[in-house]
UniProtKB/TrEMBL annotation:
It holds the Pfam family GGDEF. Residues 333-468 form the GGDEF domain. The chain crosses the membrane at residues 20-38, 92-110, 130-151, 157-182, 203-226, 232-258, 270-288. GO terms for cellular component: plasma membrane. Keywords: Membrane, Transmembrane, Transmembrane helix. GO terms for molecular function: diguanylate cyclase activity. It catalyses: 2 GTP = 3',3'-c-di-GMP + 2 diphosphate. CDD domains: GGDEF. Gene3D superfamilies: 3.30.70.270. Its cofactor is Mg(2+). It comes from Metapseudomonas lalkuanensis. This is diguanylate cyclase. GO terms for biological process: cell adhesion involved in single-species biofilm formation; negative regulation of bacterial-type flagellum-dependent cell motility. The keyword Zinc does not apply.
Length: 473
């Protein structure tokens, strides 16, 4: 483990500790409140209130923070931020109750719906999150209905609607970012991209498209402009990870909200419509990104399964032929191809049963694999027949490897499921070419197979080099 990784792990563990987690939670709440209060207009709710969603998200990601101490310190953080910025105790108290009720509802509902599977790993998570955000927003809205007449001389219904919508916008924008945030030690490529493809300059185009469409929305304006970034956000969703998509969606939404709030005349119902409209766009790209992510994972698993031999776990015939041909085409020095066939394998099946035969195949594949380097290729072509491609070795070295494989299998018995042990031997046909370029793997396998045939005819349990008149041992 590198020094950087050690540092990342230790930081992660500090804020996951029993005391560290509640303290971190309270600090995040305090900082989130200050940012919200400083950016909020006089006598109105802030456009972007980070504290509540950050608190709910942190509690979901770091269970150690959910303790009586965590709740107590966070309550003090909410109160302190309001009192320090000039609110009276009554106002600070009501605002804190509204915040805490929203956080508690969001946290509880999401935890229940997701059954503890925190994080946006499947498309359903986005729906569960939207429901949890709506519940949290409604809980805050209830306090808002009471608080609006008391604090802002407003109506009860408008208080409920305005607080609910504002809170919903904050939760649905911020929570996906926190819940999909990768662990500190995650690899950079996995954090950014939504596929196995490497990051290239073309990977930046969706961000550029998003920037252009956000600018276009401001320049052209009008009621349709909030939908301008949608195509670019969907493009981001099919390109980037859920985390990056959630982050870009939040940034685009916040940008749209702030720009439009300033250009519109102050009107509560217009503001409600704008906040709701902008943030109802959020779930779409995130859901698409999570669909892409789970499809890509499934595809990788399917590809891996399709390439493996179900019994021994080594490459199957098709995968071996594909990869061997690639290696041959790329080879610039000598390459060896071996055909391996177990001796009298039918007898093993007939005497000890088919499952014993299977156990022998698994054991033999494991023993062969241990004689090879990671750059060598081993495949099971079918039945009790294996093939190997070994690049960058001289003919002498290749004969030595073949002999080592033969001895590794022949020198110790193989244990069977019936607790008996039996000796197993194999015959190997080897072909060596100076340069693989231009040759087909099928052609080399035919040559190796005819050498194998000679090894069988000469008495089995031996290696025969193609072109050589006699077995090499
Ligand atoms: N247990 C098991 N047996 C298999 C599998 N695939 C093929 N076989 C058996 O492998 C045996 C191959 O026998 P043969 O081709 O006659 O070869 P052999 O008995 O090894 O004789 P030589 O190759 O001449 O030494 C057959 O009995 C097949 O049924 C498998 O996946 N599992």
């Amino acid at each position: 483990m590198s020094e950087d990784q050690k540092n990342e792990r230790s930081i992660w563990h500090v804020y996951q500790g029993k005391l560290g987690a509640p303290l971190t939670l309270a600090v995040l709440v305090f900082v989130g409140c200050l940012l919200g209060i400083l950016s909020r207009p006089e006598n109105h709710l802030a456009s972007l209130w980070l504290a509540n969603a950050t608190m709910a998200g942190f509690m979901l990601r770091v269970p150690a923070s959910v303790s009586p101490l965590g709740w107590l310190l966070s309550t003090l953080a909410f109160l302190a931020a309001d009192l320090l910025t000039g609110s009276g105790l009554f106002k600070a108290g009501i605002l804190t109750v509204a915040n805490l009720m929203g956080v508690a509802a969001t946290y509880t509902v999401y935890k229940r719906l997701s059954k503890g599977a925190i994080g946006i790993r499947q498309p359903m998570s986005v729906l569960q999150l939207a429901i949890a955000c709506a519940c949290g927003a409604a809980a805050s809205g209830l306090v808002g209905a009471v608080a609006n007449p008391l604090l802002f001389d407003g109506g009860v219904l408008i208080g409920f609607i305005f607080w609910s919508v504002t809170e919903f916008a904050n939760y649905i924008g911020i929570l996906p970012v926190i819940l999909s945030m990768p662990e500190p030690a995650a690899r950079a490529r996995r954090i950014v991209i939504n596929s196995a493809a490497p990051i290239r300059w073309r990977g930046m185009l969706p961000v550029f498209g998003l920037f252009v469409s956000c600018m276009g929305a401001i320049v052209i304006g009008g009621p349709g402009a909030i939908a301008f970034p949608v195509p670019a956000l969907l493009w981001c969703a099919v390109t980037y990870s859920v985390f990056v998509t959630a982050l870009l969606t939040l940034m685009a939404s916040a940008w749209m909200l702030i720009s439009f709030s300033h250009s519109l005349p102050y009107d509560e119902s217009l503001l409600i419509s704008l906040r709701l409209g902008v943030f109802l766009i959020v779930p779409g790209p995130i859901m698409l990104s999570s669909v892409m992510q789970s499809n890509n994972k499934l595809l990788v698993t399917l590809k891996q399964m399709a390439a493996r031999d179900g019994l021994t776990g080594v490459s199957n015939r098709l995968d071996f032929l594909d990869r061997a041909q690639e290696q041959l085409n790329a080879a610039s020095s000598s390459v060896g191809v071996m055909m391996i066939d177990l001796d009298h394998f039918k007898e093993i099946n007939d005497t000890h049963g088919h499952s014993a035969g299977d156990a022998v195949l698994i054991a033999v594949a494991g023993r062969i694999q241990r004689c090879l380097r990671s750059s060598d290729l081993l495949g099971r072509l079918g039945g009790e027949e294996f093939a190997i491609l070994i690049p960058d070795r001289s003919a002498e070295e290749l004969i030595a490897v073949a002999e080592r494989i033969r001895h590794t299998v022949a020198d110790s018995t193989v244990g069977l499921p019936n607790h008996r042990s039996i000796p197993v031997t194999m015959s190997i046909g080897l072909v060596v070419v100076e340069n693989g370029n231009g040759l087909s793997i099928e052609r080399l396998l035919i040559e190796a197979d005819s050498a194998l045939y000679r090894a069988k005819s000469a008495g089995r349990n031996r290696v025969v080099l193609s072109g050589a008149p006699e077995p090499v041992n």
